[in-house]
Amino acid sequence: MANSSNAAVVDISQTANKFRSSIVLQYENKYIDVKSILGLFTTLTSSGKYTLHVHGPDADEALKSMQEVFAKHNLAVQIAEE
Predict the structure, then answer these.
(1) What number does CATH give the domain 3-79?
(2) What is the pTM of this model?
């Protein structure tokens, strides 16, 4: 995995860990806890299509921050309609 991908994984995980909300990334039929670096390393690719699920007391703020960090690393993410 390229260094830029490694940086994205670390940045995404660190951002997610700032929030109390549950933040889960759906990729095909897999669900990955975004707070887990290992889960992200095994799943995240620049060409994937991802759906972000955010639930919890600070979900709005978490969602905004997660969208920003995905955009920063040029990763496309859709927001789950809950």
Answers:
(1) 3.30.1340.10
(2) 0.86
